[in-house]
Amino acid sequence: MTGNQIKAYLERAREIIGDRSQAEIDYDNAVVAHLSSGMDIKSAIAAANRTYPDEALRPGAGDWADMEARYQYIREHETILKRLGISE
């Protein structure tokens, strides 16, 4: 990847993920860690909710597919950053 491609990727990733507080980042990282350990999205969010009750998400029945897609994206994004040696 060229420098311009990396820059474009990072800008787009920020648009998709959105601005997050440190508490939100910590919560998201907990969800991703639980997914990486083999939990399904409902279990991962429930576990993160117990650890970070102030950031707890309560998705409705129709929200789970979107939640899973969001956290899979964040998980893949973190993998890409590690491969590139980038810390955000």
Structural class: mainly alpha
Low-confidence stretches: none
What's the rounded overall pLDDT mean?
95
Q: Got a strand count?
A: 0
N/C terminus separation: 18 Å
As a whole number of angstroms, the C-alpha radius of gyration is 14 Å
Overall geometric form: elongated
Number of helices: 4
Helix content: over 70%
Largest sheet: none
Number of self-contained structural domains: 1
Detail the topology: elements first, then pairings.
Blueprint: H1 3-17, H2 22-36, H3 41-51, H4 64-84
Structure write-up:
With 88 residues, the protein is mainly α. The chain has one domain. Helix content is 70%, strand content 0%. The chain has four helices and no strands. The chain has helices at residues 3-17, 22-36, 41-51, 64-84. Helix 2 packs across helix 4 (64-84). The longest helix has 21 residues, at 64-84.
